[in-house]
Amino acid sequence: MALLLRHAAEEDAQAKLDLNAKIYTGRLTENIKNGIDVTNTLEQVLINGDGKISDFPRIAKSLQADYIQSIQLAPAGIVTEIYPAEGNEDGLGNLIDREDARGKSSRYARDHDVIITQGPFNLLQGGSGIAVRNPVYMEQANGQKTFWGFTIVILRVPELFAGTFDALSKLGYDYRLFKTVSPMDPRFQEVYSSGAALPDNAAAYTFEVGDSKWRLELALNSAAAHTRNIYLLPGLVLVIFILLAVVTHFVIKHNDYLQEQKHRQALEEALRAAEAANNAKTKFLNNMSHDIRTPMNAIIGFTDIALSQQPKAEVRSCLEKIKQSSGHLMSLINDVLDISRIESGKVEFKPVPVSITEVIDTVVAVAQGFMENRNIELVINRNCPSNPYVMADALRIRDVLINILSNAVKFTKDGGKITFTTFTKPGKDERHFFGCYRIADTGVGMSEEFQSKLFDEFTQECADARTNYKGTGLGMAITKRYVELMGGTITVESKQGVGTTFTVELPLVWTDAASASPEDSEQQPKAVSLKGVPVLLAEDNDLNAEITTMLLENEGMVVTRAADGEQVVEIFKNAPAGAFAVILMDIMMPKLDGYAAAQAIRTLAGRADARTIPIIALSANVFAEDIEASKAAGMDAHLSKPLEVGKLIAAISQLYGRRE
User: Fold this and answer.
1) What is the predicted pLDDT for the residue at 161?
2) On the chain, which terminus has fewer CB atoms closer than 10 Å, C or N?
């Protein structure tokens, strides 16, 4: 009986050990990623600043944490700047030419374009540390990438893992943490331990972060093991007299364990099923987006061409209604895709240095555009900070505020008023603060019952709302997700027949003007004549080819069409150098897709113009990863379908103008 009890207790302890190991290896992974994120942020600042950071100490100070020994910049692999400088002077110097572990890992990171975590090693200041080296590559005008250097952070151990180790100790575990020395040296080296000797059969759990493998060894300490076994003592002393009670206890305990196992297995199966369903939904929506955008490109394009032919008033009215309805349909498609991407975790918060004043200027300009043909008063109350430059995701801020303002216009009758107020609140220190935005309207308002469901998906106040105001009921759900993604809050106060007030508060960090990017980074193309410009168009869909050809020929360009990826490569290869001024490349084509076709053209031997001719992707795939894939394939720009004539002509003018 005692053996059965001990066996049940050991199985229960092992199950808890496995569960805790899964939880705390996850926390250790997040600890390590926190350090890696510092180098990623510096890399983004460098890319936005064309390889320069004008006030490195100020930006590094904003990223500093108690587990960071130092933050470093190493252009061309030579450490030239360290924050804080005092006490870290020995870190200066050439990394690439060293023959020690630092040099070898640095060369590996540079040559393989991977983030390296090297160490542990002893710090001169005491304790041990881990170095994170992130190779930075700058994209040139010809699409090639060149090595700029490294962004580096030195992490202190055990401070980096302090919270995780404290939690393990409170649970009664002794532990040892190991990591591989480097990608070239797969040996495990101890990073930190609780100081107690672990038994030879201690449980070991391996996990990976970036280029390195880590191993966590766990075992209950003697005090916890003693506590676990106390409940066995009565059975050992009086086993004969309490046999029935012990058997009953064992059965209940074992049944509880089996139920727990079944429950855990059911949860894991449910999680896998939910992930599979979510992935299937995302794939379905992506495919539907592409299949809907392709015919919509023809509908909108032919409508624009028909409108340009000076039709009769009745025909013009019909065409304008078609165009308006098409725009509304595209808005619905974009909303459904946005919420799908948010749910699948594909939307990321990417703060970069920007002018918050310029961001709000854009929002105000768009809001004023909403007011055209409406008798609504727009009142702007702005508290502009003396230093407008912050670390923020300008795109997400614009999306949030413009969505709320568009709803205010939609639900406010003529003769009403909308007030847009901006102000700030202090943060945890002088570098941190909250950007606050309040939008109040005198519109129809909302009931208290609906306010509790306002941020749910596909919700509207009543059935009449779809008839009177249109929409998917996704706008506020997307807005709230974006606000939460940025670490902020959104609140609403509303009364039916009186109006609604939304308040958004977002945490922001001051930065300097030199590192900030302009809010509208697109350069205006210089005026160039496109008459007679030869264009090679790769498009497998006949309708899309016809509409694109007509749009280009209306501007005086000469169009040659290829019906698939292989054909566009052959036409370009067989044409004399300079025969075409620009290539418009569809992505999803038979025989050879647009990515492969662009790469094939860029690598043609003996054709200097193959590396310089502008290639513009025209695709119904509109996500950030699609744009990155186009750039990686060697294309210069990415335009989404349905095509907007102005953007298409502007892109061609800008790229063609560079060659003039």
Assistant:
1) 85
2) C
Q: What is the pLDDT of residue 339?
A: 63
> Closest Cα partner for 640 from 628, 650, 626?
626
* H or E stretch at 364: helix 356-370
What span, in angstroms and rounded, lies between the C-alpha atoms of 44 and 61?
Answer: 16
Work out the end-to-end distance of the chain between its first and last CA atoms, rounded to an integer number of angstroms: 91
pLDDT at 517: 54
* C-beta of residue 490 within 8 angstroms of C-beta of residue 479: yes
Long-range Cβ contact pairs of 347-352 (< 8 A, separation 24 or more)? 347/481, 347/482, 347/485, 349/393, 349/396, 349/485, 349/486, 349/487, 350/44, 350/393, 351/41, 351/391, 351/392, 351/393, 351/509, 352/44, 352/45, 352/48, 352/391, 352/392, 352/393, 352/394, 352/517
pLDDT (0 to 100) of residue 562: 95
> How many CB atoms within 10 Å of residue 370?
17
Q: Minimal CA–CA distance to 340: which of 289, 292, 290, 281?
A: 281
Please tell me the distance from the alpha carbon of residue 445 to that of residue 315, in angstroms, as a whole number.
38
Q: Give the C-alpha separation, 85 to 79, whole Å.
A: 12
Element (H, E) at 528: none
Q: How far apart are CA 384 and CA 422, in angstroms?
A: 8
Spans of the chain below 70 pLDDT:
1-10, 12, 222-247, 250-251, 274-275, 277-291, 293-294, 327-328, 330-347, 458-473, 514-527, 622, 659-660
Q: What's the pLDDT score for residue 337?
A: 66
Tell how far CA 60 is from the center of its chain: 22
pLDDT at position 344:
62
Helix (H) or strand (E) holding 515: none
Q: Identity (one letter) of the amino acid at 508?
A: L
User: What single-letter DSSP state applies at residue 610?
Assistant: G
Cα-based distances in Å from 116 to 105, 380, 645:
7, 49, 45
Rounded CA separation 573/607 (Å): 8
Which phi and psi (to 5°) does residue 486 adopt? -85, 5
Packing angle, helices 243-307 and 542-554, rounded to 10: 50
Please state the pTM of the whole predicted model. Answer: 0.46
The DSSP secondary structure of 231-255, one letter per residue, reads GGHHHHHSTTTTHHHHHHHHHHHHH
Sign of CA dihedral 528, 529, 535, 541: positive
The pLDDT of residue 357: 92
pLDDT of 229: 53
Under a CB-based contact definition with an 8 Å cutoff, are residues 304 and 649 in contact? no
H/E stretch holding 506 reads strand 499-510
Do 430 and 390 contact (CB within 8 A), yes or no?
A: no
Q: What does the alpha-carbon distance between residue 5 and residue 214 come to, in Å, rounded to a whole number? A: 35
Q: Which pLDDT belongs to residue 602? A: 93
What is the per-residue pLDDT for 356?
Answer: 92
What is the Cα–Cα distance from 645 to 548, expressed in whole angstroms? 9
**pLDDT score at 463:** 45
The pair of structure tokens assigned to 56 is: 């490195």
